[in-house]
Amino acid sequence: MAVGKNVIFSAAVGKVCPSQEEAKIKSGETVKPGYLVTKDSNGEFIAHDTAGVGGDWFVADLDSIGQGDATTALTVGDTVQAFIPVPGDFYNVVVATSQNITQKGLALTSNGDGTLKLATTGTATPDVTLFLADEVVNTGGTAQLVRVRVASSSANKASA
């Protein structure tokens, strides 16, 4: 993860904290702060597991009560908080390995494992754009926290 990022919600001064949901992390799941998560049929958080689509999704926050930082995995079975992103909000989210974000504004979508990847756009079946990159970075061999803005076309049913 990138050095220096110690928050997940990364808004302008004046916007203190967006709405959040609380749920337990499902047994067997690996969820880190900044992961894209959704709820299973039992209402437990799981890593967003379908690449290229939206749905009901949230951004996992860090474990501030347990004093975890932005690189510490959240504990299975614990009740954790996740943000309900709305268009225009900024977050530091985990982008998968080998993603070369060459300019701000590039579209990002779910990688199907809780991380994000560059979205395929301009094709007959484009990925759903969830976020737009707000910094230039090449993740190389390590998934990293990357500052992003929630896309206006993000189709997040959780924020409706």
State the assembly state of the protein chains: single chain
Give the distance, in angstroms, between the N- and C-terminal Cα atoms. Answer: 31 Å
The largest beta-sheet arranges its strands as 1-5-4-2-3
Order of helices and strands: EEEEEEEEEEEE
Spatial extent as radius of gyration: 14 Å
Major sheet: 5 strands, antiparallel
The average pLDDT is 87
Tally of extended strands?
A: 12
Summarize the structure in words.
The chain contains no helices and twelve strands. The protein has one domain (20-155). The termini are far apart. The strands form three sheets. Strands 1-5-4-2-3 form a five-stranded antiparallel β-sheet, with no helix packed on it. A five-stranded antiparallel β-sheet has the order 6-12-10-8-9, with no helix packed on it. The protein has strands spanning 20-24, 36-39, 45-47, 58-60, 79-83, 90-95, 100-101, 107-110, 116-118, 131-133, 137-138, 144-150. Helices cover 0% and strands 29% of the residues. The radius of gyration is 14 Å and the shape is globular.
